[in-house]
Specification:
Helix 2 packs parallel to helix 3. This protein is rod-shaped. 52% of the residues lie in helices and 19% in strands. It is of the alpha+beta class.
């Protein structure tokens, strides 16, 4: 049986049914007695009632016990501050993981918004400027099947319709309506 310090802040020792510590790595503790309340708590938890909370060297500790034979109990005591230190470490790890997940989600959301909305709208704005400058045949990708793709296709159709209307107006301005032959305005322009 390995008896003594248990990791940090905990101890494992053996005690008899009168509460006398029989096995311990610290020789000063051999022969010392547990308080009657602590002995009763240890005996109670050895019957499978969970844990007993009492003091160990003036600090709150959690006790677990197992009955080895009729006269001997193996007792494990773990300081509560070690539980809270473990909880703090766990909380820090959870906080770091949560923060990392939030940052990844923000980065992904930014990328998604940029690809799906911002870039297509910027391309539409550039095409609008080109149309306002007189270039009715703008090149614009309308590859997506969403609302922005529909808007881009409608914009391209509008540009083509305006171009066709402008060509038709130009044709009627320089050609005779009945014969379709060039008129005197076209003649003057070609001179």
């Amino acid at each position: 049986i390995v008896v003594g310090q248990r990791e940090r802040g905990g101890q494992i020792f053996a005690v008899d049914n009168q509460g006398v510590i029989r096995i311990h790595t610290d020789p000063k503790r051999l022969g010392a007695r547990l308080t009657p309340e602590l002995l009763a708590g240890v005996q109670k938890v050895s019957d499978g009632d969970g844990e007993y909370i009492g003091l160990l060297d003036g600090e709150v500790a959690h006790y677990h016990a197992a009955k080895v034979n009729d006269d001997l109990w193996l007792v494990s005591a773990y300081l509560e501050r070690e539980f809270s230190l473990g909880s703090k470490r766990l909380a820090q790890i959870i906080a770091v993981i949560t923060l990392t997940a939030v940052l990844v989600m923000i980065a992904f959301s930014y990328w998604f918004m940029n690809v799906m909305f911002i870039r297509p709208v910027q391309k539409l704005r550039t095409a609008t400027r080109q149309v306002s400058e007189g270039n009715l045949r703008v090149s614009l990708e309308a590859g997506s099947d969403d609302e922005i793709g529909d808007l881009a296709r409608a914009f391209l159709d509008m540009g083509e319709s305006l171009h066709a209307s402008q060509e038709q107006i130009r044709f009627h301005a320089f050609h005779d309506n009945l014969t379709g032959l060039p008129n005197r305005f076209m003649f003057r322009e070609n001179l």
